[in-house]
Amino acid sequence: MSVWDSIVGQQPTVDLLKQIVASQGSQRDTMTQSWLFCGPPGSGRSNLAKAFAAALVSPDQGLNEEATRETREVLAGSHPDVTYLATDKVTIGIQEVRDLIMTSEQMPSTAPRRVIVIEDVDRMVERTTNVLLKEIEEPAEHTVWILCAPSAQDVLPTIRSRTRIINLAVPSNKAVAGYLRESLGVDEHRAALAARLAQGHIGIAKLYASDPQVVKDRDELVVDLLRMERASDAVVLAVKIADQAKEQATRDAEAQVAREEADFRRINGLDPEERVPRQLLGAYHQIASKDELRRRTIRRSRDVIDRALTTLTSVYRDVCVLQNNSEEQVGLVNIENRAAITELSVRLSRQGAVDRIEQIAVARRRIEGNGAQLLDLEAMLCNLLV
Questions:
Q1: How many C-beta atoms lie closer than 10 Å to residue 127's C-beta?
Q2: What sign has the CA pseudo-torsion 23, 24, 25, 29?
Q3: Which residues pair with 35 in a beta bridge?
Q4: May I ask the CATH architecture of the domain 3-167?
Q5: Cα dihedral angle (358, 359, 360, 366), rounded to 10 degrees?
Q6: Inter-residue contact 146 to 53 (CB < 8 Å)
Q7: What is the pLDDT of residue 363?
Q8: Cα–Cα distance list, 375 to 92, 311, 381, 384 (Å)
Q9: For site-directed labelling of 320, which of 84, 95, 139, 373 has its Cα 20 to 30 A away?
Q10: Long-range contacts made by residues 359-364, C-beta under 8 angstroms, separation at least 24?
Q11: Who's near 44: CB < 8 A, 6+ residues apart?
């Protein structure tokens, strides 16, 4: 299929980028070289950046149903002229950006352009951003920069003023469900459920569609929140959220290490049980080092907790929908718990519902900023008590 077919719910943006790629041959000197792709988590901004990069370096502009070698290499992360920078850390390091700048100055090996993609550019501190600034302002003639962030406001004004901003929409439930049916072969009911619960987040929708246990954990979290009456309930729920996040993060980190070890053996021509040669041991052990596993577990734990916070927010979102008589227009996320949410909408004032959404947002910011997860969760849940 075309490289653009995997982009969900962003047709106007895809059409625009197709036109830009198609015109680069005749208007090469005027093509924008610094881009900022903005969209909420799960909107597909990173996938769109990869598709754009593939279209820029592929001779068929990523349009043919049969993927070219260049397209396959870009999507696999192995094309010599397309470089990605993504991180599991809290921030992107200054040396990583300096290395990218050195790469950007090199002439492309096989493609007409060199493309640099930075995911989560909002994770840069100001000092690191300043290193990138001059290169974004005056990029090498042969290089295109594609930066990704949740919103333009998450990026320093000096960066966003020197880029062309592409804003992504939140994909509709219908679009996400269709993607799940076509790409994963999910049945219609499960696809619709996953799309509704994910609220436009494609990655989470895929997780809900493929892992029934995650959906069960989510359902339990909603019920626990709606039954919470005392501070002791809040403390118990906070511990449960933190423990589940740690358990899932550990499983996911270990599974990722196993995949990378298998890839390492495959790339180096080693059988699964074959002893790793001494000259490769250092690189092999680095994959599963304690520090690396701990770093990945912490990062993944934050992602799991973030998903839990989104679930909690959806409850108060539904409360607001009922309080404003908007269910027919926008629907409820947690339909299965409609009766309990209706009762909560009566007990809470409209401002009370909005305040609780803000309390969850505050906890999210604290946890993202390396706060004490359990304490932040306890404080937040206590503030959600009615």
A1: 9
A2: positive
A3: 146, 164
A4: 3-Layer(aba) Sandwich (3.40)
A5: 110
A6: yes
A7: 95
A8: 26, 19, 10, 14
A9: 373
A10: 359/383, 359/384, 360/309, 360/312, 360/313, 360/316, 360/384, 361/313, 363/309, 364/306, 364/309
A11: 7, 8, 9, 10, 168, 171, 202
Residue 255 CB partners (closer than 8 Å, separation 6+): none
Look up the pTM and report it. Answer: 0.78
Side-chain half-sphere exposure of 179, counting CA atoms within 13 A? 24
**Which two tokens mark 62?**
């990523």
So what's the pLDDT on residue 26? 53
How far, in whole angstroms, is CA 279 from its chain's centroid?
Answer: 36
Q: Which of 91-100, 208-217, 218-227, 294-303 has the lowest mean pLDDT?
A: 294-303
Query: Tell me: the pLDDT tens digits for 147-206?
Result: 999 999 988 888 889 999 999 988 999 999 999 998 889 999 999 999 999 998 998 999
How far apart CA 146 and CA 263 sit, in angstroms, is 28
AA identity, residue 285: H
Cβ atoms 111, 83 nearer than 8 A: no
Tokens 């962003």 belong to which residue? 10
Rounded CA separation 204/21 (Å): 30
pLDDT grade, residue 71 (50/70/90)? confident
Question: How do residues 6-60 score in pLDDT, each as one tens digit?
Answer: 889 899 999 999 999 988 755 454 678 999 999 988 888 999 999 999 999 998 8
3-state secondary structure of 83: strand
Number of CB atoms found within 10 A of residue 286's CB? 11
Domains of the chain, residue spans: 3-167, 172-210, 231-384
- Which pair of tokens denotes residue 223? 């019920």
Cβ(144)–Cβ(114) below 8 Å:
yes
Residue written as token pair 């005392």:
230
Inform me whether the pLDDT recorded for 214 exceeds 60: yes
Predicted local confidence at residue 344, as pLDDT: 97
Which two tokens mark 136? Answer: 């974004």
SS3 (DSSP) at 51: helix
